Model the fold of this input.
Amino acid sequence: MNLIFLFLTAVNLSSEITIENYLRRNLEVSHEIKKQEEELEYSKRSYIYQLYDMYLPQISYNFSTDLYSDYKKNLSFEKDYSSSYLSVSKNIFNNFKDDLNLKNSFINFEISSNNLWLAKQEISYNAINTYINYLKAIKLLEVSKLNKKSYEEQYEKTKSYYNEGLRSYSDLLKSELNLKTAELYYLSQQNYLKNSLMNFNSLYYEDPLKEETLSDIVFDENIKIPGETEAVEKALKNRKEIDTLKKNLKIKENEFKKSKINLYPELKLDFSYSRQNILSLSNKKDTNYSLSFSMFYPFGPSELVDKSAQKYRAESELEQLKRKLNETEISIKKEVIAALLSLSYVIKRYEVAKIKIKISRDNLDIIKQKYAEGKASVIDLIDAQKDELDANTEVAESYYELYLSIISLKKAMGEKLWNGE
Done:
């Protein structure tokens, strides 16, 4: 029997969903993450292709032959009617524009990597909140069920006392009303649980009403809250949003450099090599190669105005991004400080709730005893039961809110919320 019990227990535990498993499921099926992975792969390939174009020459080969014509009446390959052409060309200098384009391409690759990280962070944060809200709904339903059972028992006692003439009809009505209120609260918690279940399943595209067994969370309640300065510095260093803005700022700086380069004559240095009749039947060979320099500068008013407008636009976009970076840094500082304040409050709330639940339970036991002895009114009993319900609800809510406050602070400081890459 012991072996069977252990086996069933192991099967039950293995079927439970942990918060880590739930996170992994959401990350695996997320459309947004798959989209960002595709964007990252595209930007990676774009950079590689641009890198090849920067350092490797353009090579082309062409071969043609007349198989049949009015000059050549038989269907065949003949060297006199064949030709081929091999061409190799490379731009050596282009006012440093290619170098700036290559740098921007690599920065775009890094930005795509940041976007993927941020997508995983957001999916993880939403998944954690959904998981915890479902756990909280389960716990609150248990609290409301126990509360309803307590009111049922109390109503049966009051009814018995009324039949024996020990309680008034008013006490009976108040006890019945208390029970109906508890039943209504229980129904509301059932609805809340079902909605939480649907949110839980739909987040990773499961049947909304598929029932799952969740593993409760365990965490260290003795939290060391970092100082504001330390937390803000860590956030400004870690947050990918700031890193992405700084990388975009670098792109805009390169675009501004290009706009200033465009104000000067366009200088180009090109190398080319060509040879005819490579790998063809013809014996005639002809080789050409050159190193050419060119300078181009349009003097028309429309071109000059357009170049000036491009420079102004690039400079304006650069300044706009600097302002946006400053605004984002301030916003993140506020977010971190708000998360610290919220965590401090929730810690204190949880401590008070644990004290409150002990006091309310002891007080309810005393009032029940007095009520049974006729030394307390039904109003006293109702108040004591309500206090005990509120205390149980407060402990359940504050426990899970404490965990979510810790997660919110981690997110605000840019700490990764999931395991793995």
